[in-house]
């Protein structure tokens, strides 16, 4: 309990109970308890209190005798606490004080209330009327913790010493074998250390609390002995654990280095083996968009497999960089060599993948442009193969413009194909033997021949289309000219019809005198010249259409429509013009004769002898009046009048008035002839 007798010897209390007490267990327990104090403490002796108040005398006697065999040298006094008036008669049968020499210690029987005669009250627990504070379960728990810590720490020290000493062996192979066999301790060092620190803290806390004057559990000699024992074990554990951590660190570093080296070789072996073999079998570029896309899909699968290994490369590179930053000189050279080897292989393989991807992309673009150009050429050829049957010149011009645009688009497409093809050829020519780890001259020749063949084929097709476009352009230009001639010829017919219409409707005046009539006749001749020019122009245009039709090997509507119309209108115009000329000439003769008669003086005797002139002018006037009432008869039998009836009536009225004047003049000339004989 921590209590001491007056000689500073420890007090050992043996409480007995009503149940049967096992002497073997009691002997083992006493051996354990007596092993706790130090030798110095044991030398001061023990005072044993045997509490027999709840036990039988035979048991008490057996316990006292057993003390002779267990601790005869250390026991100085045995106090047997007896029950009140219970053993009085039996004590006479066995006197402990008579057996002192044989037992080796003094035995006294004492009541609990008289125990203070031999031991101070402050050194006795409350069970014996003392004031010493003692919690047996708390002591037991702490003692179990101490025993567990002592056992675990001692075992752990042996294991750590074995591991640490094994790591100091000569060869690397022996060291690794030793570490492999005893690498993990049976218990966690951190847990044991934590338990030791908590135990030491508890022991130290109890020691300090025992001197503060308060009611507390008094320090025990076993605890004072436990503190340096725990501290010593902790110091040894820390030392061995530090060495063990260094061994683990070295082992972990070596293991990590070996794992990194193994993974590096896995990456390198795969990239230089199966990875390179995959690229080695992929050299074509395809002969179409679909073929190139299939090769791209296959390449994406290859890239996907490489990506997994590249991810391992990134992780390994980070691990190597972390180890390099740690700065272990002995591993720097090896780590840098691994890092360089890994980087070289990965970058070389990544370059090959990128080159292959760019090559396939360029091939896909080349085939895409080639397909677009082929479709453009097919469209242009289809347009050229269709016979041209436009309705007018405007549609021909639009078709010709569309043809030129398509040809220009083909030119741009061919130029783009050449650029893509040359770029692809440049990439192929830059493809060295290291790209796939073998000579690829034969495979490259096939790719080059294919590219050049596609470009040459497109060039030939484009040349053929150009030749056909030239022929079609010439034909369409001739057709434009043909339509223009037909349109102009039709316009000439319209103009001639308008001249005929103007001749019939507006050219109706015959003049008021000879001078005016002559002016009208001169204007009419000029009008006829204009019509003649129009007719000649139309004839020339129609002749040109005939030549163009012969060149184009097509029939024209001009010979069956425009030319007959032109000839018909021209004949009508000619007949009408002749009738107009005849009327104007008759009117000139009429006005000239009439004016001459009307201007002659009566004093001129010769005038009176020319009466036949009057008859002539009357005949001319009547003839002119008759012509005014007669329509123009065309060759086809149709008839047409000059002007309106009112216009003709006005012209006829003017002629009649003039004829009246001439008749009046005639009468005046006859009157002198009649009067002369009468006179």
TrEMBL record:
Lineage top rank: taxon: Eukaryota
Record SUPFAM superfamilies: Spectrin repeat (SSF46966)
Pfam family, one: CRAL_TRIO_2
Ranges for domain CRAL-TRIO: 1-136
Protein family: Belongs to the SOLO family.
KW Repeat (keyword) present: yes
Record keywords: Repeat
Source species: Motacilla alba
A GO molecular function held by the record: phosphatidylinositol-4-phosphate binding
Coiled coil (residue ranges): none
Keyword Repeat found: yes
PROSITE patterns for the chain: CRAL_TRIO
Protein name per Swiss-Prot or TrEMBL: SESD1 protein
């Amino acid at each position: 309990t921590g209590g001491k007798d007056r000689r500073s010897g420890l007090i050992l209390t043996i409480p007995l109970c009503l149940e049967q007490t096992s002497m073997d267990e009691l002997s083992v327990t006493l051996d354990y308890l007596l092993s706790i104090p130090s030798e110095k403490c044991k030398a001061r002796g023990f005072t044993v209190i045997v509490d027999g108040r709840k036990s039988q005398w035979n048991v008490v006697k057996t316990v006292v005798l057993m003390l002779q065999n267990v601790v005869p040298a250390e026991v100085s006094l045995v106090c047997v606490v007896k029950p009140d008036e219970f053993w009085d008669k039996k004590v006479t049968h066995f006197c402990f004080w008579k057996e002192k020499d044989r037992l080796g210690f003094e035995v006294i029987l004492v009541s609990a209330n008289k125990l203070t005669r031999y031991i101070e009250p402050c050194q006795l627990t409350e069970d014996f009327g003392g004031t010493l504070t003692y919690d047996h379960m708390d002591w037991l728990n702490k003692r179990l913790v101490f025993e567990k810590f002592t056992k675990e720490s001692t075992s752990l020290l042996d294991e750590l010493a074995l591991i640490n000493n094994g790591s100091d062996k000569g060869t690397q192979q022996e060291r690794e074998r030793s570490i492999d066999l005893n690498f993990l301790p049976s218990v966690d060092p951190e847990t044991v250390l934590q338990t030791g620190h908590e135990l030491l803290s508890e022991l130290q806390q109890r020691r300090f609390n025992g001197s503060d004057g308060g009611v507390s559990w008094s320090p025990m000699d076993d605890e004072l002995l436990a503190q340096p024992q725990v501290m010593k074990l902790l110091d040894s554990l820390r030392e061995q654990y530090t060495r063990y951590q260094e061994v683990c660190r070295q082992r972990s570093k070596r293991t990590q280095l070996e794992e990194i080296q193994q993974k590096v070789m896995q990456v390198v072996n795969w990239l230089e083996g199966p990875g390179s073999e995959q690229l080695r079998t992929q050299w074509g570029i395809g002969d179409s968009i679909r073929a190139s896309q299939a090769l791209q899909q296959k390449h994406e699968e290859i890239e996907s497999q490489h990506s997994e290994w590249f991810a391992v490369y990134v992780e390994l590179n980070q691990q190597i960089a972390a180890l390099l930053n740690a700065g272990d000189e002995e591993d720097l050279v090896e780590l840098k060599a691994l890092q360089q080897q890994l980087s070289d292989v990965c970058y070389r393989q990544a370059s090959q993948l990128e080159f292959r991807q760019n090559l396939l992309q360029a091939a896909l673009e080349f085939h895409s442009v080639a397909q677009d150009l082929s479709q453009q050429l097919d469209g242009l050829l289809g347009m050229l193969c269709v016979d041209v049957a436009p309705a007018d010149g405007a549609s021909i011009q639009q078709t010709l413009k569309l043809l030129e645009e398509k040809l220009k688009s083909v030119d741009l497409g061919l130029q783009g194909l050449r650029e893509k093809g040359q770029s692809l050829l440049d990439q192929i020519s830059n493809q060295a033997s290291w790209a796939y780890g073998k000579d690829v001259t034969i495979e490259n020749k096939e790719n080059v021949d294919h590219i050049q063949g596609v470009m040459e084929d497109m060039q030939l097709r484009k040349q053929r289309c150009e030749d056909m476009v030239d022929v079609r352009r010439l034909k369409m230009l001739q057709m434009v000219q043909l339509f223009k001639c037909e349109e102009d010829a039709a316009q000439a017919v319209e103009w001639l019809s308008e001249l005929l219409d103007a001749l019939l409707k507006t050219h109706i005046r015959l003049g008021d005198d000879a001078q005016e009539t002559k002016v009208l006749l001169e204007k009419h001749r000029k009008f006829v010249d204009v019509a003649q020019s129009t007719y000649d122009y139309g004839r020339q245009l129609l002749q040109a259409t005939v030549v163009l039709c012969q060149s184009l090997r097509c029939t024209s509507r001009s010979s069956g429509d425009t030319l007959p119309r032109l000839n018909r209108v021209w004949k009508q115009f000619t007949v009408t013009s002749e009738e107009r000329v005849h009327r104007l000439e008759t009117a000139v003769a009429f006005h000239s004769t009439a004016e001459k008669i009307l201007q002659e003086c009566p004093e001129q005797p010769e005038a009176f002898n020319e009466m036949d002139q009057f008859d002539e002018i009357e005949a001319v006037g009547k003839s002119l009046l008759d012509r005014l009432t007669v329509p123009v008869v065309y060759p086809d039998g149709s008839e047409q009048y000059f002007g309106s009836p009112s216009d003709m009536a006005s012209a006829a009225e003017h002629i009649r008035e003039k004829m009246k004047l001439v008749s009046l003049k005639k009468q005046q000339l006859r009157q002198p002839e009649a009067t002369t004989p009468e006179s």
